[in-house]
Design brief:
Length: about 400
């Protein structure tokens, strides 16, 4: 299969299951195809004994109290676990909460956490501030480091290796199976921020212990939801995660969960189109004289492309662009301001195209693949890719006519 076909193939394979997962059971009197939205805080029981028995089922998808999850949340949790290939999922209030909750659940004072240097910026800030303040040691590994380099960074007290593959700003794809082997050999857990790869990378088949998703992105898909998910495939890990989530009051509102379930129904076909358009635009950008490098995991020039080709069934809608060093950051800013079809904003994975500068907004301990010149990232939506290319073309003219 060519890379052009592969970027969409994994998404299309999901389409049937996404249409049927977490659907109401059929009844003789007829059934709506969508689950009802159930809001509530208090759950009442027919007896004290029934309340006590239900309260002991906090690891199951049952209604105990609104702050421990709603029926709508529970159905979304089942759907996400199915897509990820895990056994249990905890839905939380945001993608960042999905990153921070397991760090708090599985780390304690005196532990060491080793993070990929390309990790999501707010996750890094949480590690540098909150975790360090709580007595957790923090260090970073180069995203493209080999096994020997990673092994050398492991410590006797390393309890978590946290990675993000590909990174959402610099797009290095990592050998996740190798990271898992090293982490497990040293008694540590491997956490993966799988937001870019959700649905097209099977984390637990590659040794991941805790998989993290920002449901805000692909699953919700319409830029109107903030939610996150944490998935595991081990009962002991689930109990630890679930207890910590309840103790921290981590829950998502039923409206957000319902909207995410609705978004999931079309995620396969949405992302199949967006992935195809994104690769088309990325390849066009490679031919432009103003561009030094395009960082799209499906392109051979992207760091870790070999691992994308080996481990992923598709590609996402987000990629990076590095301009030639002849241009300044101010030049790039004028180019961005000249665009008509790309919104300037954070987040990605929705139906609309976005652009965001990455130069100056990334903290790294080591080298970055966007150091050559001013850089930005593109989120490709459902617009006609020819229209998006035409808009980029007129934007790039601003650079050449300065």
């Amino acid at each position: 299969m060519t890379d052009e076909n592969k970027v969409s193939a994994g998404w299309l394979k999901l389409a049937s299951s996404l249409s049927h997962v977490a659907r109401p059971p059929a009844t003789e009197t007829g059934t709506y195809v969508n689950l009802p939205l159930e809001r509530g805080s208090t759950v009442v029981f027919p007896s004290l004994e029934a309340m006590q028995q239900t309260g002991r089922k906090r690891y199951e998808h049952v209604s105990i109290y609104g702050a421990m999850g709603s029926p709508t949340q529970h159905e979304l949790e089942k759907a996400i676990a199915t897509i990820e290939g895990g056994t249990d999922t905890q839905i939380v209030c945001s993608g960042l909460a999905a990153c921070t909750t397991p760090l708090l659940a599985f780390l304690k004072a005196g532990d060491h956490c080793l993070l990929a240097d390309n990790v999501y910026g707010p996750t890094r800030r949480f590690a540098e501030n909150m975790l360090k303040r709580f007595g957790v040691e923090i260090s970073y590994f180069p995203p493209c480091a080999d096994a020997a380099a990673i092994t050398a960074l492991m410590r006797p007290n390393t309890r978590v290796v946290f990675t993000e593959s590909p990174g959402s700003h610099t797009f290095e794809v990592q050998d996740v199976a190798m990271l898992a082997d090293i982490a497990h050999t040293h008694g540590a857990l491997l956490f993966l921020d799988n937001t870019w790869g959700f649905g097209i990378f099977a984390p637990f088949k590659h040794g991941v212990d805790v998989s993290i998703q920002a449901l805000t992105k692909y699953p919700a898909g319409h830029s109107d939801v903030i939610a996150g998910a944490i998935t595991v495939a081990d009962t002991h890990l689930w109990h630890t995660l679930r207890d910590a989530s309840v103790q921290m009051g981590q829950v998502a509102g039923p409206d957000e969960c319902w909207l995410t379930l609705r978004g999931l129904r079309t995620m396969g076909v949405r992302l199949a189109q967006q992935a195809k358009s994104a690769l088309q635009i990325a390849k066009w950008l490679q031919t432009q004289p103003e561009v030094a490098r395009v960082l799209h995991p499906a392109l051979p020039e992207c760091p870790g492309h070999t691992y994308w080709k080996r481990d992923f069934t598709g590609a996402g809608s987000l990629f990076g662009v590095v301009l030639k060093a002849d241009y300044t950051v101010q030049d790039m800013q004028r180019m961005i301001d000249a665009l008509k079809m790309y919104g300037i904003g954070a987040s990605w994975g929705g139906y609309e195209s976005l652009i965001l500068p990455t130069t100056g907004g990334i903290t790294r301990s080591g080298e970055s693949p966007i150091q050559a010149g001013p850089a930005f990232r593109l989120q490709i939506g459902l617009e006609n890719p020819d229209d998006l290319i035409a808009d980029l073309q007129q934007g790039l003219r601003v650079l050449t006519n300065i």
